[in-house]
From TrEMBL:
Gene3D superfamilies: NAD(P)-binding Rossmann-like Domain. One of its GO terms (molecular function) is oxidoreductase activity. This is NADP-dependent 3-hydroxy acid dehydrogenase YdfG. PROSITE patterns: ADH_SHORT (PS00061). Belongs to the short-chain dehydrogenases/reductases (SDR) family. Coiled coil: none annotated. Keywords: Oxidoreductase. It comes from Blastococcus xanthinilyticus. The keyword tRNA processing does not apply. Pfam families: adh_short (PF00106). The keyword Oxidoreductase applies. InterPro entries: NAD(P)-bd_dom_sf, Sc_DH/Rdtase_CS, SDR_fam. The lineage of its organism: Bacteria, Bacillati, Actinomycetota, Actinomycetes, Geodermatophilales.
Amino acid sequence: MTTPTPAAGSVALITGGTGGFGRALATKLRALDVTPVLADLDSERNRQVAADLGCPFVVLDVTDRAANEAVVAQVEAEHGRLDAAYLNAGISAAKSDDALDMDEFMRVVQIDLFGVVYGAEAARPAIKRAGGGAIVVTASLAGLSPMAGDPGYSVAKGGAIAFARSMAPRLQREGITISAICPGFADTAIIDRIRDQFTAANFPVLTAEEVADAMVMAWTSAEPGAAYVIQPGVGTVPYRFKGVPSAKTASGETAVVPEALRPPSMR
Ligand SMILES: NC(=O)c1ccc[n+]([C@@H]2O[C@H](COP(=O)([O-])OP(=O)(O)OC[C@H]3O[C@@H](n4cnc5c(N)ncnc54)[C@H](O)[C@@H]3O)[C@@H](O)[C@H]2O)c1
């Protein structure tokens, strides 16, 4: 079965857009006549990457809430619409000591979790104005399976998956499908520090292109709130959450969550 493609003429914002996944995704989207706007930290290198790909570049630090809103306004002003937001910017901790470096922990969570929350809230009204679309969060396998060497990363990615799952019903009501992708290790700059170890152990890593294919699929075909695992030799598969036991009433029946605790879209 072939994956449906985004409509030609659509506009997508990619945070962390000049990194490994961002570049691979931008290349694929351009080939589909989509305009990918690359949002990233301000540097000559990042501007040059975007120019080389033939993509517009916007400066964005995803931890700046107001800047997320300003960038979305800029995209709408310059390109007329926003159909998809790829909330993909991310970092991991630089070291994996037993002592937890709280400053680094907070920095990872600020970028990898709050960057996603700010980005989603900024993009939401614009995508709704465009008649609906998608928000795709780049989480990680580390959000589903604990990463002992980088607890902040697991917290942030696990939180990003929980955010996508819990936001899905209200966004669906606005015609927006939010989903998360959860790649295993992939060959981008983020694994520069540990690439030698993968090579030495003959451990397979994903290519950025494999991940970018999943990112395109998530735009057009994701189930709302789904988390897609991507692993070498396995491909892209939806993660099946096991669920939790429901509360039981005194007479042993499954208790129903009070209406007031559900979003309006679920009442
Ligand atoms: N490569 C992997 O093994 C792997 C696996 C699972 C998930 N991920 C996730 O994929 C995403 C993309 O990473 P990548 O593999 O392309 O690595 P990368 O390092 O090539 O790209 C990350 C990008 O995010 C940008 N960025 C960092 N902080 C930012 C900030 N505050 N504001 C805006 N942009 C910022 C960087 O400048 C860079 O361009 C990240 O969220 C990462 O955690 C990567």
